[in-house]
Amino acid sequence: RLPGQGPGTSPGHPDVIFCPGGPILLRGDHVVQDEDGNEYRTTRPVSAVCRCGGSAIKPWCDGTHKVMRRRPGR
User: What angle do CA 34, 51, 5 make, to 5 degrees?
Assistant: First the structure.
């Protein structure tokens, strides 16, 4: 969700890129909101959001998906 944008508004949208086997990249002005309603802001021009669930710095990606892919039996 973009800062200052609520229901019923017509916000601009950040670029969203789904990396195969990796994170979601967000480019542009954005706020990440989790299922509990907690908001995470960043000043980075591009941020990576974890999709594997293994990151130690959720909601941000820390590269854990790379290690998870290398484990035997996965």
Answer: 35
Query: What are the domain boundaries of the chain?
Result: 15-70
Segment holding 53, helix H or strand E = none
C-alpha to C-alpha distance for 6 and 53, rounded to whole angstroms: 28
Residue burial 37-67, b: 16+ Cβ < 10 Å; e: rest: eeeeeeeeeebbbbbbeebeeebbbbebbee
pTM value? 0.70
User: Which class does domain 15-70 fall in?
Assistant: alpha beta
pLDDT digits (tens, 9 = 90+) for 24-35: 999 988 889 988
